[in-house]
Amino acid sequence: MREIDAILGVSVVCTLIGWIFYVISNWWLQNRRLTLTMEFHKRLLDRMGNSEEFGRFLESQAGQNMMQSLSEQPVPRFLGGSGVLRALQASVVFLMLSLAMFALRWIYPLDEGYLVMGILTMAVGLGLLLSSLLSYGLRDRLERS
């Protein structure tokens, strides 16, 4: 095995382990945040003494915000701008990785694995780029209406 193959293999495994750690930690943080929010809302509702006090609370802006956060599908004000940005960043990374694979194919002309991997990563990068552009356009249309 050539040195470059070993380096690529180790870097792919390390990237995969890091991505798995990121996904699990992100899931845990979102789950914890949701649990704390629901617990706060439950305690707030438990403190309401009577129906008049609860009605006044629901008529206030804070009550409307709470009811919107409790609903299954809240009305989105901003549809995933950070998700669009993440998809755009990932597309740039995949496109640069595909260019590196094409360069390795040029350096090692007898090895076609780099060409295949370059084509696959370019397809993923272009797919993410197209997805982020479509999401951005859709978000703008939904925010205007």
Characterise the protein shown here.
The protein has 145 residues and is mainly alpha-helical. Helix content is 85%, strand content 0%. It is elongated, with a radius of gyration of 24 Å.
Which terms would index this structure?
5 helices; mainly alpha; 145 residues
Structure, briefly:
By secondary structure, the protein is mainly alpha-helical.
The parts where pLDDT drops under 50 for at least 5 residues are: 74-80
Number of strands: 0
Strand content: under 5%
How would you classify the helix and strand content by structural class? mainly alpha
* Shape call: elongated
- The percent range for helix content is over 70%
Order of helices and strands: HHHHH
Q: Which value, in Å, is the CA radius of gyration? A: 24 Å
The biggest beta sheet is recorded as: none
- The number of helical elements comes to 5
Span of the ends, CA to CA: 58 Å
User: Which whole number gives the mean pLDDT?
Assistant: 77
How do the helices and strands line up, and which of them pair or pack?
Blueprint: H1 3-47, H2 51-59, H3 61-70, H4 81-107, H5 113-144
Helix pairs in contact: 2-3, 4-5
